[in-house]
Amino acid sequence: MTTLPFPNDFLWGAATSAYQIEGHPLADGAGPSIWHRFVHQPGRIAHDDTGDLACDHYHRFAEDVALMADLGLGAYRFSIAWGRVLPEGRGAVNIKGLDFYRRLTDALLERGIQPMITLYHWDLPAALHDRGGWLNPDSPRWFADYARLLFDALDDRVPLWVTLNEPWVVSVLGYLEGELAPGHQDWFETPRVAHHLLLAHAEAVAAYRASGRHRIGLAVNLEPQHPASSSPDDQAAAARRDAFINRWFLDPLLLGVYPSELESLFGPAWPGFADADLKRIQCATDFIGVNYYSRGLVRAAPNHPPLNAVRISPTYAPRTSMDWEIYPQGLTDTLLWLKDRYGNPPLYITENGAAFDDPSPCNGEVSDPERVDYLRTHLCAAHAAITQGIDLRGYFAWSLLDNFEWAQGYAKRFGLVQVDPLSQKRTLKTSARFYREVIGGNGVAPSPATG
Ligand code: GBH
To answer: Which residue positions are annotated as catalytic (predicted)?
Structure first.
């Protein structure tokens, strides 16, 4: 069986985020986040699950770093809870919170695992939300000040930084659909939040250029949008959704303009933005982080403003337990699209993975053949894009651990490692062993080896 080889210095990693794994969100003087508030509102989260304990990573990080070393990871992407470090979001520093991330970073480095730090994975300090949060025009400066603090504390040891995770999700699922914190449903707020997030990214990059010695980028969720039929209405709906999801943040960042479709979609809710802001936003980002899970199959839906389009679930196709279609070709297409549209930027796949209903452990292992298959086919898809000239530097599986899957709580499981939410016991899944082999061989076999 031939193995598809990856580039020599390719970085193999896994990813998590603070609120999803750490637990103890108020420990050691931390300030509450909008997520802490949100999960404690009844009915927001499936089964009213919370991140109060999550994977107890705050206390078990050493054990988890040992697991990472056991898998042979070369890198680990984690996020910092802003409110642990700055309980009020700005002002006084909480040294105990900062120390947690210092100890985690040092534990990784001792095992030869490169840290990739995400500064913002959705857990805005509640104190800042009370001042308007991302709607406040000062929010980019708050973020840059927080970022500078972390650069000063950790840049000597951290080679890769991500400013924001999925600003589209923050803007649209947090402020338009209300499925995620802070749970607003307001067309007028959404483009303003998006704009402040872009400025926040730009301000943090500018701060990094003044003192940072390594590389900084942005992580975006990308999903090709395909029409559900050949009808012109469905085709137009898919094109609208492509501008809305895939180009909203990358066009201004890399081309200096918002997609023109957005203004017509939002109509009176689109505020129009100063040229000076757009100049500032078009900043030299060192890499783009790609979070890829699936594609969208789109149908025109006149009664669904602002997009007048809905995503349908293709019942004939294989899907994960999130009901997302398994569509590896979309990863190849997405990576090639980035190369063609934006001039071959350096890329990392900062998230890729799947939720399945895993069985209980048997003989000390959890059998998850569907996840193995998902990883294998998506790694092959990434490899196909590499052979066509994209500049892919690394791959981070989502996720290291079964964790708190936001609005879905603990019911949806993305981990390479199973975590029993009661006993906190960690058990490797077959996919973890599969991934260890991929890392060890720096390559992937296109189909299961036989004999
Ligand atoms: C990621 O976001 C998160 O970064 C991570 O924290 C999370 O645990 C992980 O995925 C798994 O969910 O067609 O309008 O319904 C998820 C990115 C963006 C993927 C929205 C699904 C559907 C858009 N998601 N997308 S829509």
So the answer is: 166, 351
